[in-house]
UniProtKB/TrEMBL annotation, chain B:
Pfam families noted in UniProt: BPD_transp_2
Keywords assigned by UniProt, alphabetized: Cell inner membrane, Cell membrane, Membrane, Transmembrane, Transmembrane helix, Transport
CDD domains attached to this UniProt entry: TM_PBP1_transp_AraH_like
Organism annotation: Kribbella capetownensis
GO cellular component: plasma membrane
UniProt topology in membrane: Multi-pass membrane protein
KW Repeat (keyword) present: no
PANTHER family named among the record's database cross-references: ABC TRANSPORTER PERMEASE PROTEIN YPHD-RELATED-RELATED (PTHR32196), AUTOINDUCER 2 IMPORT SYSTEM PERMEASE PROTEIN LSRC (PTHR32196:SF29)
InterPro entries with a match to the protein in the record: ABC_transp_permease
Recorded GO MF terms: transmembrane transporter activity
Protein name (record): Autoinducer 2 import system permease protein LsrC
Subcellular location: Cell membrane
Subunit structure comment from the entry: The complex is composed of two ATP-binding proteins (LsrA), two transmembrane proteins (LsrC and LsrD) and a solute-binding protein (LsrB).
């Protein structure tokens, strides 16, 4: 149990990436022998905190103190030397090297002439696994280990480094129940040996099961730090989401028409399971849930970019072949992907080329694309979306994020879709553009387009959607009407808590 | 939870596979030598073996350097040109001061190569450009510098001091100096890669660059280091080349880079980094050199040689892929369980 002095203190740290302030003036303390939870919505700044502790990012201002002495973490090696071990959501092992070598990397026991003493190295790894109570062959390569085992290897790494501060960034996201139990047993023994544990998770039952103290972050700021005995799950959820629904969401009331998109029993092991829903013409349906709950994978599978194991997708009564985006497009489906830089745009090509890309066939004459037609069509659509640009021939990469998003929208709206799927339509764009995108989606719905929107932003979900579908761990767990959907009810469903509102 | 018994340190399946991998090359060599000897017994004469060993020595030194770079998930295409520059440099140096001891000449050659290696490494590290592109560029630049400097001239054996040429031909206990030098390079590099932290970090970088950075490995410094080793060894190979052939012009070593990469790949060094050994690379060099010489003995058209080497590369990659798939399947099954 904590004696008065914190082992590690984060003091008023701030970090910005470009114009975006990821973390602002956050302070908290970690005590030896205590597990400390860090919770917050997606984008609250948790990962940035982790990366600062890991030495990957350096704080713009503020300090990190170990035993009351400010330390400068200029790189991962510094963090390691300071006794801070970070276990990432995606383990970072060397697949070609043996498990023992992965654990010992940089600290291999040395024998004569400073050569690595392999026998001792394997012995050390084996002893660590005994201590952790797991059976992993230290001689096998890390390649092929399950995520759970990889995480145990990461913990063994932390143990072998005598880490005093162990940071675990959503370690349970990909684990089964039994594996979580095993991980927690290991984490508790670490804590009981005097290490300061920082545990990041979206799952409140895990936070309450493991941790003594909880820090809540929202929008890059510190909200509160409490003992878990002093705070209820309800309060935590409210503190996580509790912001004003300030922005106006101009959703027009539309009487839904016929079913435009019908999804039945869509499954892809282990990402999503038995997902069924309908979207009617004129309706905006939001697909909510935490990052990693399978939302993006579902819509990509509908569009045919990702494969699926089973299930059917019908668009206006026509069944879509799996794995054929071309057919989906022909049937009138458009997908505005989550990551516009990687998936939505060709950054080196001109604006006009990007806008007309999905229609390059219909716009061409005798197989040739003529600049004039392309330009006319691009001008029309970019004007409709009020896109700001210098010349249509400029590279898309030179535009601001919001305008890039408009180009992606223009590109797909120009195909005259019956079903529009948007994945995080307003991520990383400014408030003004956000409102424009929302207005646009609303007017499209009014024109009879069926809109399926994946979004992590609760205000957007609540403001725009006629219905909210909530996914958790690959399953559709709740369907809330516009009147039933509140920040609390959506968050409860997404995190697996009983709705008690 | 129950404790597990400490398993006795033993070879992992990967080790066995890699051993088998090198065994495969040895078997291929044995078959090749046997077939060729049956067809023409003179293939096993002293002179023929000597030629093969000398050729292998030069290629193996290059292959060892290349393996170091490839293990870090990079590639060095400039080695043939560096060899040429180094050979021409030491040739010119010896023309002007014939009394230089061989050891100094070796050091000069390696230094010339190391400088080229620094340039390659720095461009890859700071320019953030793929090594393939950088070294393709330096391949031409270095060759161009050599042509400009040589200006069409050629250094002939009679212009080189006899002491240096002796070094290229003399033997100790029947083994040529060049071969001994190549073995020394091989052993030292092999031990560093296997038994020293720095060596293991090179494997780690190639296996997962992202994880290597997070593990605090000085990735940039090690990348430059790997290119310096490759460059220095290419420079050293240039001295061996000069000593063996005695005749050096600006085109020396043209096209060697592809032989070297072939030797490394055939020797089982994964082109995506992280696995393989310099022993394998050296065996690959021996196999390729032996093929060239046995085709001559068997009076098979030399043009076939390239096709055979190409086929061998495809075979090697295919075999590696097959083994990798099987090993991966096996490893998944061997995953641990909750106890």
């Amino acid at each position: 149990m904590p004696d008065g002095r914190p082992l590690l203190s984060v003091r008023e740290v701030s970090k910005s990436f470009g114009a975006v302030a990821a973390v602002r003036d956050v302070s908290f303390d970690l005590y030896g022998g205590e597990a400390h939870a860090l919770v917050g919505e997606n984008g609250a700044g948790k990962s940035t905190i982790v990366k600062m502790l890991a030495g990957v990012h350096r704080p713009d201002s503020g300090t990190i103190e170990l035993d009351g002495i400010a330390i400068d973490l200029g790189g991962p090696a510094d963090a390691k030397a300071a006794g801070i071990a970070v276990i990432y959501q995606e383990p970072t092992l060397f697949p070609d090297l043996s498990v023992a070598e992965n654990i010992a990397m940089g600290r291999q026991p040395l024998g004569r002439f400073k050569t690595i003493d392999r026998a001792a190295m394997v012995q050390q790894a084996a002893q660590l696994f005994v201590r952790l109570g797991v059976s992993i062959d230290p001689n096998r390569p890390a390649r092929g280990l399950s995520i759970a085992d990889q995480q145990l290897v990461e913990i063994a790494k932390a143990l072998s480094a005598d880490a005093r501060v162990v940071v675990m960034d959503e370690p349970t996201a990909a684990l089964s129940g039994v594996e979580v139990e095993r991980l927690f047993a290991v984490a508790r023994s670490l804590r009981d040996d005097g290490a300061a544990l920082m545990f990041i998770s979206h799952r409140f039952e895990e936070v309450t099961a493991l941790c003594e103290r909880v820090t809540i972050m929202r929008d890059g700021r510190h909200v509160s730090t409490d003992l878990l005995t002093d705070v209820t799950v309800d309060e935590m959820v409210r503190k996580m989401v509790g912001r004003d629904l300030g922005a106006l969401f101009p959703k027009q009331d539309v009487t839904p028409g016929a079913v435009a998109l019908s999804v039945r029993g869509l499954s892809r092991d282990p990402v999503f399971l038995d997902v069924s829903f309908d979207v009617r013409a004129g309706e905006i349906v939001a697909l909510a849930g935490l990052v990693g709950s399978g939302r993006s994978e579902v819509v990509q599978s509908i569009f045919g970019v990702d494969p699926r194991d089973s299930g059917t997708v019908e668009v206006v009564g026509r069944t879509l072949k799996p794995g054929s985006p071309k057919q989906a497009m022909a049937a009138g489906v458009a997908l505005v992907p989550e990551d516009r830089r990687q998936q939505g745009l060709l950054m080196e090509l001109s604006i006009e080329r990007n806008v007309t890309l999905p229609r390059s066939r219909s716009l061409s004459q005798l197989g040739f694309l003529t600049g004039g037609r392309e330009r006319r069509s691009a001008r029309e659509w970019t004007q409709r979306l009020k896109t700001k640009y210098g010349r249509l021939s400029d590279e898309v990469g030179t535009l601001s994020g919001g305008n890039q998003q408009k180009v992606v929208l223009a590109k797909w709206l120009a195909t005259d879709p019956k079903v529009l799927i948007v994945d995080e339509p307003t991520r990383g764009i400014d408030v003004g553009t956000k409102a424009e995108v929302h207005r646009l989606m609303s007017s499209l719905a009014a024109e009879g387009v069926a809109v399926l929107m994946v979004s992590s932003e609760l205000p957007e979900v609540l403001g725009m959607a006629d219905r909210v579908l909530v996914m958790r761990e690959g399953r559709l767990v709740a369907e809330l009407s516009r009147s039933d959907a509140t920040e609390e009810s959506v968050m409860f469903a997404a995190t697996g808590q009983e709705a008690r509102v | 939870m129950t404790a597990v018994d400490l398993p006795a340190p033993r070879r992992s399946s990967l080790d066995v596979v890699l051993k088998v991998r090198e065994l495969g090359i040895v078997i291929a060599l044995a078959v090749l030598v046997a077939v060729t000897t049956i067809s023409n017994p003179r293939f096993l004469s002293g002179q023929s073996i000597r030629d093969i060993l000398l050729g292998t020595a030069i290629l193996a030194v290059l292959a060892v350097g290349q393996a170091v770079v490839v293990i870090t998930r990079n590639i060095d295409l400039s080695v043939g040109s560096v060899l040429g520059l180094s050979a021409f440099t030491v040739g010119t140096l010896l023309q002007n001061s014939p009394r230089l001891p061989v050891i100094v000449v070796l050091v000069v050659g390696a230094a010339v190569g190391a400088v080229c290696g620094v340039v390659n490494g720095a461009l890859v590290r700071f320019g953030n450009v793929p090594a393939l592109v950088v070294t393709l560029g330096t391949l031409y630049v270095v060759r161009g510098i050599t042509y400009f400097w040589a200006g069409g001239s050629q250094i002939n054996a009679d212009e080189l001091p006899s002491g240096f040429l002796d070094f290229g031909n003399a033997t100790v206990l029947g083994i040529p100096y060049l071969v001994l030098l190549a073995i020394l390079v091989l052993v030292v590099t092999g031990v560093v890669l296997r038994n020293y932290r720095t060596g293991r970090e090179l494997y780690a970088m190639g296996s997962s660059p992202q994880a290597a950075r997070l593990a605090g490995i000085p990735v940039g410094r090690r990348t430059i280091g790997a290119f310096v080793v490759s460059g220095a060894l290419a420079g050293l190979a240039g001295v061996l080349f000069a000593a063996r052939f005695g005749t050096i012009d600006a085109a020396a070593g043209t096209g060697y880079e592809l032989n070297v990469v072939a030797a490394v790949v055939v020797g089982g060094v994964a082109v995506f980094g992280g696995s393989g050994t310099v022993w394998g690379a050296a065996l690959g060099a021996l196999l390729l050199t032996t093929i060239a010489s046995s085709l001559a003995v068997l009076e098979i058209n030399q043009f076939w040689q390239q096709a055979i080497v190409g086929g061998l590369i495809l075979l090697a990659i295919g075999a590696d892929r097959l083994v990798a798939v099987r090993v991966a399947a096996g490893l998944k099954k061997r995953g641990s369980h909750v106890s």
